[in-house]
Specification:
This protein is 9% helix and 47% strand. The protein is mostly beta strands and 865 residues long. Among the domains are: 548 residues, Maltoporin, Chain A, CATH 2.40.170.20; 52 residues, no CATH class. The chain has a 22-stranded antiparallel barrel. A hairpin with a 2-residue loop joins strand 18 and strand 19. The chain is globular and about 95 Å long. The two termini are 57 Å apart.
Length: 865
Amino acid sequence: MKFDSFKGSAVQRAALYAGVAAIGLAIPTGAMAQDADEAVLEDEDEAQPDEIGGPNSNIIVVTASKRETTLQETPISVSVTSGETLEQAQIRDLSDLTTVAPSLRSSQLQSSANTTFIIRGFGNGANNAGIEPSVGVFIDGIYRSRSAAQIGDLANVQRIEVLRGPQSTLFGKNASAGVISVVTREPQFEFGGSVAATYGNFNQMELKGDVTGPITDSVAFSIDGLYNKRDGYVEVPNLGIDINNRDRWSLRGQLLVEPSSDFKIRAIGDFSRIDEECCFAGNVVAGPSVPALFALGGQIDPENLFNDTSFLNIAPSNKIDSYGGSVQMDYQAGPLALTSISAYRKLEAFNQQDVDFSSADIVNEIRDQEIDTFSQELRIASDFDGPLNFLLGAYYFKEDVEQTSQLITGDDSRAFFSLLAGNPAVFNGVELALGLPQNSIFSPGLLTDEAFTLDNEAISIFGTVDFEVTDRLTLTAGFNYTDDKKDFTANLTAFDELGQINLVDAFIVQATGGTVTTPAQFQALPAANQAFLLGLATDPNVNPLLPLAAFQFQPPFLAIPNAVEDGKTRDDDFSYTLRAAYDVSDQINVYFTYATGFKASSVNLSRDSRPLPTDFVPGPGLSAFAAPPSPITDAGIAVPNLNTGTRFAGPEDAEVYEIGLKAQFPRFGFNLALFDQTLEGFQSNIFTGTGFALANAGEQSTKGFEFDATINPVDPLVLTFAMTYLDSVFDSFPNSAVGDLTGQTPGGTPEITLATSATYTHEFGYSGNFLIARVDYNHESNVNITNGLPAFGPTAETLFRREVNLVNGSLTLRLNNGIEVSAWGRNILNERFITQVFDGVAQAGTVSGYPNQPRTYGGTVRFKF
């Protein structure tokens, strides 16, 4: 049985590949040539009609190096997507950006707040508030530390830069895999703006607008906002609702103060809200527990993921408020530029979900998070006429995380697990044998009540020095020193009556007639007696209680900090970059880079937090009676059924060797980067069926290349092509939650990714009226989705695979009076595939999965003034 994407016909697939060959050369990563006027002109809205698609419009200005340079001059593997492309391609949030940036991947999981970004096969961060992402997201220079604060719809964006590889020497916080930098438009001193309205299938309605202009000769303002509402495309028949909808809005205001030509202040305040019912997870494999669901009258749509039908006992709820403000001050003192960026942000995220993904009321989860962040960055950069220039910066980051969460046992839980045990009255007998109140096991109500906190304080000093050896050769050295401190707490009360009892120790108590009831009494027995009792207690043929271990979902929790574990991580690191850049000619640049990167420890803020093996050693069957000496046992603080795992994962250390070539000719340009990148201690967060296991992989590496190009054969036509090849492997990961992954390709990392586009701009005479047609195609080669599931073992790697072939397009009529009318479609061929799979919650053998979004289409009317 092989679960793969739904393919189009052979004719469709042949046509797609023929289109790739025909387009041949292009560059979503180099920004569309017809859009470059936005990045070059002081006022992006003042592009002249004859510049659209013009032969010289492929000069792209970026700030990837914390200075304004052209894309060709920047010796960094960076891709750029302009605001114009975002509009034409209907890219509404960062998740959509992957269709035009092939080295970037994203995946949205069980809620709107859980999106992971991946560059060159490296990335993590979703599902656990204690894990900071390996791919840093910055909006107007402000670090957004969690995915819930990154995924709002994009408004008034000038460009998005994707920096590939470790970027620690340019960014002050966690950029071990890369950076996504979103740059929005500054207020202008000339009055202008735009309004846009969109209507699409699934009753999508979007309103978007911005206005900017002067207040005085030295003060300008801008206000932008958007509202996006769309019905869900997944039907929940038993509740009479549709889920996977859109309901989000945002508002942002800016002030730009320029009291002199040397001094500028930019203040930004914003608020965004998401209130959605997300996200659909359907059945991929109907395991042996499904008949029990049906016997209870529960419903699922078995092994029919792309039918977009779900059965739930409650509607999922995602509510996210993200707001904050920043002040950036820039001062030019002759050849020195000083920059200060101060920012405060707050994130509030609430999630409620039926986590068994059926209409039976078995288990639900509630999670409530609050994250406060403050950051301060100071930079000084030189622009001397001589051969030596530098950038020096300091960065301070303070974050406080608070999370409460609960698991709630449903009304059908006891009956469901009784059926799985094969006897409707089984738990009544267990309760009688163990002295528990009747009907207490899996009784409706709270299963867990959880509270977690994390206080993070980090200081970084970073900088680069450029030395021009000759007019053509520049040597660069960069560094970053980071000191990162985290203090965390985890407290959980478990109300699982069965989970409170160790089944090995309970047998020993009964076998000794109650004369042995504590570890001290057991240890006082002669060694031969201990061995005899333990042998009987761990023999499933003798101890009838042992099969009940499969139903002990939430044992007691050892809170941290405690007498042994202090709940602290302390990391410091020195990272550096060495680079040589050479201008072969005015059109060709080459560079070589060796760089290291760093991401500090991440904390397991979840009910799956467990002591490290160095702090605790459980006895056979998690017996406390037979537990050998360990710091936690010796301190007398062990709780029943305590097991080992992780409280945190150690730092990630990145290393990359990269050779790049950038060439720009009239009507044609390309970029090529060859790299060998390694990440030691990759922080893996794998779902195990009942929770997430956070652990460091020994080493993960990726070798490959990135090629992107643009060709403008005639003024109206721009062709783009980008290709990423990745040879990614776990060099060492023997102790993952699903077994030894050493030698395997990390799940979901395609070997080949393509992104192509063709844009044709037709002017009606010399009227200044244009018809712009655009089509783009995104391909990911066939790849394993997961590295393993407990029910399937290593065979899961071959069972669950996907291939991606997405076609998007738009047709825009742009009139010289500022009116634009567009028709657009995304995933036009309705290609369906699985984005991720996971074990069914407390349903061994069942596999659930997340499908991609179906075809969407609509029309937009925009007026620019």
